[in-house]
Every structure is written in C-alpha cells, then in structure tokens.
Specification:
Strand order of the largest sheet: 1-2
Shape: rod-shaped
Structural class: mainly alpha
Strand content: 5-15%
Helix content: 55-70%
Distance between the termini: 210 Å
Length: 265
C-alpha cells in the first residue's frame, strides 16, 4: 500500500509537471518571454518527483545584432598610410628650426644712419660742383648752337648770292664797280669787254688758251687769289677781274680800248 501510494504520488507529480498548464493560470511574470543572455540562463530540471534549478552554457540572444568582424587590412591601413619619418631628416629639421630661432634672438637691431656734419658738408660741396658744371655745359652747348646757327645763316646767304650772281652776273658787276667808284660809263665799257670775252658765262672755257670764266683769266687758276670757289662762283671771278683791270689798265674803259686795238686785254 505504501509502495502504491508512492508510485501514484510520483506519477501524479510527473503528470502535473509534464501536462500543459493553462496560460491564464500562470502568473503574469511567467507569461513574459524569456530572453536568454550570453552570461547564462536558469534551467529547470525535472528529476523524478522534484524540479531542480541550474545554469546552462551561455546562448546567443536571438535579439542581439552583432557587427561584422573587422578585417585585418582595415586595421593596418592607417598604419600603412602613415609612413614613419626618417630619423636623419627629423634631426636636420629640428636643428634648422633651432638655428633659425637662435638667429632671430641674436640678430642685431638695425642701426639708424647718423648725420655726420663733415659728410653732409662734402655732399653739399659735390652737389654744388655738379650744378655749376651742368650750368657751364648748358651754356657751352647754347653758345655752340648759336655759332652753328650763325654759320648756317651765312652759308645760306652766300648760296643765295651765288645763285643770284649765276642768274644775273651783270648786276653783281655793276654793284662791285660802283664800290670802286666806277659809274655808268665805266660799266658800259666793262659790259662790252666781257661780253666779247665770255658772254658773261662763269663756266666759259677757251680750249685753245685755257682762259676761264667771265673775265677769261689766263690761266683760270689765277682767280684762286680771290677765292677757292673761282670755278663755280661768278662773284669770285668778277672780283678778281675788276682787280686785274684796275692794276693793268686803270679803268674798264682803258681795258676795252686795249682790247679793241689788239683783240685781247
């Protein structure tokens, strides 16, 4: 009897444990979902007529999101990109920076110029000499320019007179004869004489006697005593011819009378 009672009690207890309990009959705390954590969970063990509690190995939670494992290449990439500095280059860089700071600290302050009275006086003296020299040079250049202008004016006047004499040699001869005191009658004799000799052409050249020019100087180079331009300047030729007539015959009419007698003068 005792054995039967024990067996029935054990079976009754097992059935009560293995049978599905009513959800409503369970306490509210039991109805909450069980979350298994990684550190372990409490397990109920049914052994015969009793329930024992124990711990089970940690199980991964079905609600846990795990990050993917980090790859070794990702961990090494920053280290690979950061190249270590060469010890020698680092030493040179630090040394150059130290020297630069030392030079900045020890550099002497700029010295302001000091006005030396003697130096200032010498500079003023040199400046005055340069000013006077510049003024003298400017005056010399102005004087030279004026002289050249005067020479140019005389040359222009001379060319104009020569051109006028080439165009009208009789007018030049009349004026020069008047300067010697020879009037209209003497000029009339002179005009007849030189018309016969050269026709008043300043380039007239006698091929048989080498006589040349308006007065037919023989030879023509005798007229160089009146001017170096005797070959081209009628004024030079007339001046020489009047002088020759005065020395040889006294007057143009005396020279013309001699020419009429012997056909030359």
């Amino acid at each position: 009897m005792v054995v039967r009672a024990a067996v029935r009690g054990a079976l009754s207890g097992r059935l009560s444990l293995t049978s599905r309990p009513s959800w409503r009959a369970l306490p509210r705390a039991v109805r909450r979902p069980v979350v298994l954590v990684a550190t372990g969970a409490v397990a109920l063990t049914v052994t015969g007529a009793g329930v024992t509690a124990g711990t089970s190995p940690p199980q991964p939670s079905p609600f846990t999101v795990q990050a993917p494992p980090r790859q070794p290449s990702e961990e090494l990439a920053p280290r690979e990109r950061a190249q270590p500095e060469d010890p020698g280059a680092r030493s040179e860089r630090l040394t150059a920076a130290a020297v630069s700071r030392s030079q900045e600290r020890t550099a002497p302050a700029p010295q302001l110029p000091v006005d030396d009275p003697d130096r200032l006086a010498e500079e003023r003296r040199l400046a005055e000499e340069q000013r006077r020299a510049a003024e003298a040079e400017a005056a010399r250049q102005a004087e030279e320019a004026a002289r050249q202008a005067e020479v140019a004016a005389r040359e222009a006047e001379h060319r104009a007179r020569v051109a006028a004499a080439v165009a009208d040699p009789r007018s030049v001869a009349r004026a020069l004869a008047a300067e010697r005191g020879w009037g209209r009658q003497q000029f009339s004799c002179l005009d007849a004489l030189w018309t016969k000799e050269s026709g008043w052409e300043h380039t007239a050249d006698n091929p048989t006697s080498s006589a040349y020019g308006i007065p037919q100087s023989l030879p023509g180079r005798k007229m160089a005593s009146a001017g170096a331009d005797w070959e081209t300047n009628p004024i030079t030729q007339i001046t020489w011819g009047l002088g020759y007539i005065a020395d040889a015959y006294g007057t143009p009419c005396g020279a013309w009378a001699h020419s009429e007698r012997v056909d030359w003068y």
